[in-house]
């Protein structure tokens, strides 16, 4: 098989995931796009490992081992990421990443819609630590 | 390199290449739909198609073990987690008009530019490179297991510790503290407690 086929497919998948990360607004959709990017990298690793296992004399099968590691780390990442999104949703009532601007510079809160949950969260945090 | 190019027809694809191309088109289409559809649950279901297509691509590249791990972990576990996340954040069923943010044209520009650059570089670099798919499978369970437990034992064990830490972290993050729970119960009746319901 021509090596360009899997390489081009993985490049296109990666850019699809890149678009999703930049353009999506819901945090879970952003996580799904991150999964697409990780899968593109996995396809690259597998394709080059299969190529090198024929072309090279001695190979550690590092591509497939790294693919397994990437899959495990992606599973850990999606678990932690969803836990964070759920915690944010519980505190703010939204998983919209455009509205999470508390640490952004130069952005005043847009209105009472974003202001009220933020103060509510601060009060909640103070209550939780007390 | 020229010998390799001579022994393979450049524009006469083999059956495996045609199958790879077709499955790749399906995978890419499903991925594009995943990042463009306005229905959140449909995005998760298109993600299943994309990840399953990638598993078929792994099988075509003779990496069997990776393919089955992909089916088990991604299609089995990760997508179920994502669907649960969508349900728990009360994602609306049906079209949600604000799924895309305002900077989607900038995102499209960046994505198309990087896709063009990457495809150009990759095609230019590996124009005369072929993968030999004949002979024993490069990624059978025996081969992968042998290399994993001979050369990659220490990273493997470190990764298991990392998974454990991530699981404990996820549990700690998603556990409700007593104060937060009492607070939520006390204001469950007020409209502010249900504010984020439909969004």
From TrEMBL, chain B:
Entries under InterPro entries matching the protein: NADH_UbQ/plastoQ_OxRdtase_su6, Nuo/plastoQ_OxRdtase_6_NuoJ
What are the UniProt keywords, alphabetically? Answer: Cell membrane, Membrane, NAD, Quinone, Transmembrane, Transmembrane helix
What's the top EC group for this one? translocase
Keyword ATP-binding attached: no
UniProt name for this protein: NADH-quinone oxidoreductase subunit J
Q: Which reactions is this enzyme annotated as catalysing?
A: a quinone + NADH + 5 H(+)(in) = a quinol + NAD(+) + 4 H(+)(out)
- Please give the coiled-coil regions recorded for this protein: none
Q: Which superkingdom heads the taxonomic lineage of this protein's source?
A: Bacteria
Please report the organism this UniProt entry assigns to the protein. Streptomyces hyderabadensis
Family indicated by similarity: Belongs to the complex I subunit 6 family.
Q: How does it sit in the membrane?
A: Multi-pass membrane protein
Methyltransferase among keywords: no
The places in or outside the cell where this protein is found are:
Cell membrane
Question: Its function?
Answer: NDH-1 shuttles electrons from NADH, via FMN and iron-sulfur (Fe-S) centers, to quinones in the respiratory chain. Couples the redox reaction to proton translocation (for every two electrons transferred, four hydrogen ions are translocated across the cytoplasmic membrane), and thus conserves the redox energy in a proton gradient.
Where are the bilayer-spanning segments?
18-36, 43-61, 67-93, 105-123, 152-173
EC number, UniProt record: 7.1.1.-
